[in-house]
Structure formats: structure tokens, C-alpha cells
Amino acid sequence: MLPPDKLASPLTVLESAGELIADGQLGEAFAVSLGRVFFGFLIGGVIGVLLGLAAGLSRWGETLLDPPVQMLRTLPHLGLIPLFILWFGIGEEPKLALVAAGVAFPLYLNLHAGIRQTDPGLVEAARVLGYSSFERIVHVVLPSAVPQSLVGLRIALGTAWLSLIVGEQINADAGLGFLINNAREFLRTDVVVVGLVVYALLGLTTDALVRLLERRVLRWQAR
């Protein structure tokens, strides 16, 4: 129904996927993109968790940290690309920074909210039972924040892949984004679709892994 320069047929897409797998191009691009998401997620995750703990567990931390974080959160993080290029150049650093920025805010918001929504009755019961402040945090507050934090983790992973798609448009010479850009130059819609399908499968896989983790960690919740 559509000309090949607009959208390749499913059969052509499957054939192109087989060719890309056979010659190693898809595997190499997959490994590069996965590495970028991993390191970007690691950086953003550490920042988001540390900020969430500081703001969630301390009134002073919330007063000092939450307003500037909320201000930065309202900025579309993809709009920071020009600034990241000025700061870090056009190498790997802006791509990792973009993924990290997309990851940090969902983790921060959900961890902070999870801590603040802890049932005061549970905290008071732990205090009456003789738990120290540190023990109340470890045994009551943080476990109560786990469900909300896992929601943040799922959102963060989805945002990480979205950020990577955009980040790999920045002077990339490897990765799925480079594969898609190169195919666009030659009107290879079949290869473009292959790259997009791989992105989608990666997103679904990581989300499924978090949901599996959620089922194991939250076995105590009533279903």
C-alpha cells in the first residue's frame, strides 16, 4: 500500500534484520547502545537516589534540594542538548549526560514521594518498640518506599531509552541511532524500522525485568 521509500514491507524488514544480524552490524550497534544506557543509567540513578534520600529523610534536605530539583525537572531534558554539547563536546559525554538527566528525575520524585508517604503509624509503632532512628529508617521507611521507587525505576528505564534515541543523533559513529541515521541517508526505511523495533524490544525487556523484580521484592503485598 505504501512505496518502499516511505515504509518498507514487513517481509523486507525481516530480510534486512537477518542480513544485519548475519554481518554483525546489528550486534555491534546493540552492544554500543546498551553500554550507553547502562553507564548513563548508572550515573543518573546514583544522583537520583542520593537526592531522593537526602530530601526524603531530612526536612532540611527537602527545603534545600527539592525546590531547585523541581525547577530543573520542569525543563524538558531533551532541550538541554545544546548546553550539553557546549559543556561536553560531541563525543560520548553528552549522550551519557542526556540519559542520566532523563533517569535522575523519575527516580528522585518517586523515591522522595515513597519516603514521605510512609505510614506515620508504622513509624510510631517502631519507635514505641524501641527502634532507633536509623533502625526505623532501615526497617520501616525504606521498605515502605520500595513500591513507589520501583514505579520510578520503570519510568526511568523508559525515559533512558527515549533519551538514547535522541542522544545518538549527536554525531554518533556507532550504535542503533547511527545505524538508523545512516539508513535514512540512503532511504533504507527497512533498516530504520529494524532499529526502531530493536529499541522497542529493549524497552519492553528492561520493563519486564523490573516487573519481575517487583514481583519478587513485593511478595509481601496482598494481591
Automatic annotation (TrEMBL):
Keywords: Cell membrane, Membrane, Transmembrane, Transmembrane helix, Transport. GO terms for cellular component: plasma membrane. It comes from the Bacteria. It is found in: Cell membrane. Residues 30-210 form the ABC transmembrane type-1 domain. One of its GO terms (biological process) is alkanesulfonate transmembrane transport. The keyword rRNA-binding does not apply. The chain crosses the membrane at residues 37-60, 72-90, 96-115, 191-213. It is a multi-pass membrane protein. Its main location: membrane. Coiled coil: none annotated. PANTHER family: ALIPHATIC SULFONATES TRANSPORT PERMEASE PROTEIN SSUC-RELATED, ALKANE SULFONATE ABC TRANSPORTER-RELATED, MEMBRANE SUBUNIT. Belongs to the binding-protein-dependent transport system permease family. This is ABC transporter permease. It comes from Lentzea aerocolonigenes (Lechevalieria aerocolonigenes).
